[in-house]
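ugh ok fine here u go
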Amino acid sequence: MSTLNFFTYILENSLALMVVNIIKFKNMRKLPFFFCLAAVLLSCQSWASVKAEEPADHIKKLTGVWLREGDASAGDVIKIEHIEEQNLTVGVLTKVSNHSKIFGYQPGDIKWKLIRINEDGTILINNLNSTITREEASGRIISTVKTYGPFLITVRDENLISLQNKDTADDHRIGNEQKWRRISK
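structure:
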């Protein structure tokens, strides 16, 4: 029995005993405590009802191979797959465009991880971003730093998605949106 299930079990039994006590002895002084305990129990149950066993259906629908189109990194290919043993959905680069190679991306990099659904139903991912530093005089790349940042996925249709940086999603400048087309399931 998990810790959450154990506490839920204890709360359910405490709640049941309190209801019996209130009804049997008409003890109304414990009524506020009853409502607090009921609220805690309901919040634990709603938290426990989030199933870790299965990803949401619309995340499962994203599995497949996706091709980036319409910008300098066109030609990148990502395979989105669900790893059952780890209950994790990730997007792994399988092909990297010449432009993306400049930024240090390689086949096998986990480009998208922690693919999940927000409370408002939007799909949120952690996208691997790369920043390069160039030597001012020669333009030679002297460092590459990769970090993950939050991005939103918008499903345009079954075979077309777009990505936007969550922090700049309202910024409609050119280059802020990535377009990906499914090339196989």
